[in-house]
Amino acid sequence: MNNQRWLSFNYFTFFFTWGIFMPYWTGWLTGDKGLSVSAASIIIGAGLLTRSFSTLILFPVATNRFSISTVMKGIALLSLVLMISYIPFESYSVLLLITVLFSLIYPNLMPGVEGSATILLAHEKLDYGKSRSFGSIGYTVALIVVGLGTSLFQEKAIYWLMLAGIVFIIFSQFQATPLILKTEPKIQNSNTSIGNFKKLFTSKEFLIILIISVLLQGSHTSYYNYGFIYLQDLGINSFYIGLILNVAVLGEILFFAKADSFLANMKISTMYIWAAIGSTLRWVLVFLFPNVFVFIGSQLLHVISFGYAHYATIQFISKRLKTSQIPTAQGMYTSFAMSLINALLTFPAGFLYEVSAKTAFLGMIACTIPALLLTLATKRKYNY
């Protein structure tokens, strides 16, 4: 298996589970475990908070002591153990504890696979978009399978498919790994990680990019946490919900497959501007027209709201930073943009959803508009 195929395979296996965990876990907690939306939101929010600090601290520290390959294998095995521990429990407090522990470990697979990609990109010519599109394919397959599974076996199918997905990840991690990812770090002490944190936190250019990324990715919080429940409230069958959610991911697949050539000459700031505008339009449409057809149409904007923002950040990390800084930067991006901001916004979004479901989506423009203004204000000064 060559390095391009290895990366594609690992993107597929991870995002298959991510396509279950992100959109459906709240639905599993409410449907199979019998929790209220507010109680499930607290559990999800606690998990997101844990994830943000875990990917920020544990992943960079672990990759400073061990090869990224060793770290990924350990994460996958521990994730399986924690997932199995969900089986016998129904108690809110125990489910909260397990979710916190699971969120301490499992989400580190994301900076792991993205970090693997950026390291490989820095050392050889790979098509990032091509491999990343397999992640979107994995996400798509998950949505279809879960949609079919929940229509036949109710919400309990969500859990068993997630468990099977983690087993699939373990299998992928024990395939032939690129040699560069097996390389042990040269300096094996905590000062290296601390040094990288300090350098990145004192880099105004990196902080601007990080803040913009955090705002743009955070604007998807209501969609990730409540998209499944929102469509249920509209009276849509579970199988069709899976298909509807897939519209966004199918767009992702096409986008990432052509992103390297399509966006080759586009500046990072221009990508962020498009992402901010597309995201604002997306959530305003869902608010103004609360029906399934507009929701489906808004899914097409996911390519811009998520795809452009993510691709821009990955390009910045892989092209503007040193190889030794990539795992730390990737951990920070995953921590703040994919976890912490979602955790912080889950609580107000959950409150807004209880008041009015569509308002929870409109509230996300509190992230997109500042992201747009910040990009416009800084793009020339920092030349990105």
UniProtKB/TrEMBL annotation:
Keywords: Cell inner membrane, Cell membrane, Membrane, Transmembrane, Transmembrane helix, Transport. GO terms for molecular function: lactose binding; lactose:proton symporter activity. GO terms for cellular component: plasma membrane. InterPro entries: HcaT-like, MFS_assoc_dom, MFS_trans_sf. It holds the Pfam family MFS_1_like. It is found in: Cell inner membrane. Residues 6-361 form the Major facilitator superfamily associated domain. It is a multi-pass membrane protein. The keyword Transmembrane applies. The chain crosses the membrane at residues 7-25, 37-59, 71-89, 134-153, 159-181, 206-226, 238-257, 269-286, 332-353, 359-378. Its main location: membrane. It comes from the Bacteria. This is 3-phenylpropionic acid transporter. It comes from Caldibacillus thermoamylovorans. The lineage of its organism: Bacteria, Bacillati, Bacillota, Bacilli, Bacillales.
